[in-house]
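Changelog-adjacent note: as of this version, every example in the card shows the full chain rather than a window. The one below runs 286 residues end to end.
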Amino acid sequence: MECFGGNSPYPVLKVSQYPLPKRLVRELSAHCDKLLIAEEGQPFVEDIVRGISDTTDILGRMDGTLPRTGELTPDAVREALGLSVTLPATIASDDADVVVPRPPALCRGCGHRDVYAALNEVLREYENARVFGDIGCYTLGFLPPYRAIHSCVDMGASITMAKGAADAGQWPAVAVIGDSTFTHSGMTGLLDAINENADITVIISDNLTTGMTGGQDSAGINKYEAICRGLGISDEHLHVVVPLPKNMPEITATIRNEINYHGTSVIIPRRECMQTLQRHLKEKKK
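Full-length structure tokens:
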């Protein structure tokens, strides 16, 4: 934690641990007429500070000083602080892009890229296809250049939402879920779909790791085919493919065939995450 430090013209308290340091918050509020709470996600800290601070003017997401939804951007925080922008002489005064945008993207060589490329190629053949996504690094498939998924709600929701949409008449309905998310909260949804033979295609994009939280092994690593068979998927509609550009004809044909099969099917594209692959190669060299 840093209190009243750095080069900021304002007193600053940086919180990097919980529980919230209430004594430091009260000390800060004693020196200020206003407090601006800048935090990502939900206004959790802001809500607590409103209850413990003697400062009555608390600014942040809850009062609209900062956007209530979405990520914080440098421009949003600058505006909340009432700061003007001093542009370098090399930048035109009417240039609004003070900070160059750096949207997140899937890593180069990532197997998820090939999955989305194949999926987009096939779904262009259908008038009203819908792809239900899930939570993980593969959620970046929502962004350009792929724009391959239409929803992301919570862990495991991809399969249940696809089933619900199919039950309501949506076709094709495709669910994309990661290997770790599948073992976390996707298996029950797949069991329900299999029990009713829902007309959905489930893609379990297996990168052989838990990429979002450090690269540890997934709970079901090397067991996904067995899990799906145990839940009731037949071998005829359970496929494992290797997402590489050279395998695109096989992958697109598999996706197309299973979409046209009016029942529950599972496709498992499997290729190791580029981050953990590089780490494993370095370990082998040592």
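Structural remarks: Residues 29 and 72 are 23 Å apart (CA to CA).
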